[in-house]
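Could you please review the protein record set out just below?
***
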Amino acid sequence: MDNDFRLDEGPFSKELSLLLSFMRNDPAEITEIDWDKFLELARHHRVYSILYNYLRKVDHVRIPPQVRQTLKKEYQSNTFDMLRLSAQMEELCKLFSDTDIRAIVLKGPVLAADLYGDLSLRTSRDLDILIPIQDLDQAEELLKGQGYVKEEEYKTILNDWKWRHHHVTYIHKNTGVTLEIHWRLGPGPGKEPGFDELWDRKRISTLTSNPVYYLGREDLFLFLASHGARHGWSRLRWLADIDRIARQHFDFPRLHQLLKKNRQLHLGAQALILSQQLLHTPLTVDLESITVSKRAKRLASDAIFYIGQMVNLHTPPLPEHVSKYHKRHLFSLMPTPHKILFVVSFLYPYPEDAETLPLPKPLQLLYFPLRPVLWVWRKTLKRNLSQGEA
């Protein structure tokens, strides 16, 4: 990487800087720390298990006992949660296997075992399982029989859900376990490996007695990099994953080809730059070679906005300045062909068009030529209403 390029950590609080130093096993000077804020950051970034694992191995006399104790409780609670999640994951994978549904676990316990070698060191609040899109209906019936309830029904028109969304969420009515069933790695429009391709490169976890499959290492890196980028790296847990996987052995020609083929080389580079500079991840010559692009450096700098402000993208409504920044950032992540597809996708009918002008199903293709008119109509009504309220 260009030795002159450095991320601006000016927006980072003392508490965040200390947290990062602990994550990279780097003893730091502790002065005037707001420990309540430090614990809030640990919870927000979902790294309290990593922090506790570090602190129990060192003797920091200036860390208040109550901070250690709080992190210990969080760590222990997470360990039990991960064990329960692991059992549920194995049960679901067996259920799918017994009914000939191919399933690939994307995150959760298998990721903790593969990257950290220890279930307790990574947090997960849900399960993410990828299946072929043609098996979604069958999977839903199976899940209903197991006590899972769909969180919400997507509003859809002309099958736009297949590419505008990438997963559906279920919650177990008794255990409260949240399950996301994916048919894509990420939302469209965008290029990504197909399910059959991912299945051919899958690995089998040693965590369970029944077979549980998860992504091949290069596919996993692509998924983690694109997922973290899409969320602005707003949780350091995702960057910790990059730190761990970057320390593993890659088939670099395959990784490079995979990222380039799916137009995600800049996302992989962004992830590596952030991990190297914030967590001091050692990069091989090959990995470092893809971090030299100006675009990747700019994208890495853009992520500081999310990390420095403790932005939470999962609790809408977002503050207006965060919402505007995030929309711009998401667009900047797209390669030019995807930007074109994204802009063109606005011409594809939306469910709101059917609410504005209900048409029988045989006539719904008319929403294509009518869409600009219906969009202007809604905007006019909204403006008139707001002026009336004023």
